[in-house]
From TrEMBL:
Domain Glycoside hydrolase family 65 N-terminal residues, every copy: 14-268
Name this protein carries in UniProt: Glycoside hydrolase family 65 protein
Active site per the UniProt annotation: E490
GO MF annotations, alphabetized: carbohydrate binding; glycosyltransferase activity; hydrolase activity, hydrolyzing O-glycosyl compounds
Organism: Flavobacterium flavipigmentatum
Amino acid sequence: MNQDYIKPDNWSIIEEGFDAERVKSSESLFSIGNGAMGQRANFEETYSGKTFQGSYIAGIYYPDKTKVGWWKNGYPKYFAKVLNAPNWIGIDIEINEENFDLNKCTQVKNFRRELNMKEGWYNRSFEATLKNGTQIAVNVRRFLSLDLDEVGIIKYEITPLNKDAKIVYKPYIDAGVTNEDANWEEKFWEPLEVKKATNEAFVTAQTFKTHFKVTTFMHNTIFANGENVNISASTIDSTSDKVQFHYGTIIAKGQTSAIQKIGGYTVSLNHENTLAAAEKCIKKALNLGYDQLLQNQIEAWSKIWEMSDITIDGDVKAQQGIRFNIFQLNQTYLGKDSRLNIGPKGFTGEKYGGSTYWDTEAYCIPFYMATKDQQVARNLLTYRFNQLDKAIENAKDNLGFKNGAALYPMVTMNGEECHNEWEITHEEIHRNGAIAFAIFNYHRFTGDYSYIPEKGLEVLIGIARFWHQRASFSKEKNQYVILGVTGPNEYENNINNNFYTNYIAKWCIDYTAEQIKKVAAEYPADHKRVLEKVVLSGAEIQQWKKVADNMYFPTSKELGIYLQQDGFLDKDLVPVKDLDRAQRPINQKWSWDRVLRSPYIKQADVLQCFYFFEDHFSREELQRNFEFYESFTVHESSLSPCVHSIQAAVLDKMDMAYTFYLRTSRLDLEDYNKEVEEGCHITSMAGTWMSIVEGFGGMRVKNDQLHFSPKIPKEWKAYSFKINFRNQIIKVAVNHNETTFTVDGDQDLAINVNGKTIMATPLATA
């Protein structure tokens, strides 16, 4: 834990007291989004202190030229960045002729932020004394509509406390923005058109290179004591990329003045005429009005929580943590558009480019499968199918592979590789396996096999061809090996025979061969179509199988474990418990050379394999490998604690499982890795959900049947969750005495609980 200022609360994230050193962290934690757009919790008014401005639009990106010391063949030409979008929230404010800036006020008291997760809004309130002596109370509420997902709304209220006040509101929209993480300090937006009308304005701009067109809009209304004062702007400032209105008002001491600002974006991904679409958005929002928009927001979030909520009784921090994770996942992606995916930072920051990583397949798909309609998960699989041609191109152009071998990118926005670190881009090839595993996992959980003959088989064949060509035959070992890779543990680069990579390569080939046979038997027309398209023969499949059947796996017979890679035991094996805490996190304290030579593991690696393929190993094997590797794992990846929590629960190490659950659920709230000001760890939040459902709940799908082995931390009185399993909603409620299963519907459901099959009905208990 590196911070502890968020107040425990079941349904809200709350900060009390103004601290300029916390502003950037809070901008991340209080971020809001609606799947189509999102923004950090920047102040609307001028703020001269340390801040990280960020507003983002789903699917809008820029190919920022890769910046390296020298160029190597195979480097991606660019690193795709989620763009800092034009700013629509800005409201400069003058109070009695002084520009209002919290960083320059003589006093700020009763400062409070609240992110209400139950209802989907962000609120900020405080009292401030300006240098001119004016004392004011401020309350600001902001939300991004789930129903009108191109629209956001702000209500900014000011009450002078000690004297009458002349207030000038200066709302603006501004396309002259830059990215915090730009490589070359380039401008990303080209202004095209500015339009002004009564109390509303529009700036249309397009991205350089990618030519996404965006119209940013605003509409302003001024209120006094809750009544519309029906005034228009006295002055309008305008440039090629910015419009700012001036509204002058006088409000008596103790009375409340307010500006209501409607804003948002319309994009060329969805509209031919973005300006006309923006005008319609404003009309729709005005017709509904603020109160109705807020009520619709509350109802929309209520529907989301009805299915996705996890309740925890007796542990407020644990409850707050899981709801924060579920809330941010739903703010980031709602599954409406198969062109979109889930970036590791979502709408909370720019690190990692806002792009798609293997996190989606390994961590996020289980959450979306179980808490939404299966079509949402299918859309995520379709995203990869639609980019298969570029994965084949990537393997061909950068690795020299042939015959339709596919290497999916480590990082992508449109299917092209856009990660600019060579040891990750070309060596962290295990991401191919996660994509194949997601296809298997989708069928296993939903029972929907149709995706495989329709789309998935082509993806699997491309991946199997990649593994066949990437493996090489070792005469010394008389087996196939995979050299020069980086496993999930990125604290080892360019190593040989990473156990997880080798294992998932073998599994991918075996699974693909099985699916080819199954499709041939059950979907002969699709089988013929696919095999003719990819020109696949039985002889080629036999060559794949030769590799899979003779894959090498590094092991230590003495320790009874699988080795993370061939040379792991050659390291100075000092366990984490003996590492000076002042040296943590090592990625911020040590040189990269020292990190790579150390035994310290960034995230679950061998154990990631045990997580995916749990049924392939015995409990005793899991225990030996878990106890060995846990002692060297520093968990400096957000993706690590959840896997360890799940496996600790399997091994009845409940104290450890609970500790890891708290770490994954409160990773950002307590800033474990000292980086939350850069944004939240969105994709790993799905792992937090897995820690409860698969860890404590013990949920698995085996032989088309749900299995549970429920356990409960001693710190909790009870917990509950729901899953959508094959279009039946099952609620699982666990306390220290019993587990109750409730089926939402009129059909009984056979469930295996601790090895015994029961029929789950509204009254069934175990």
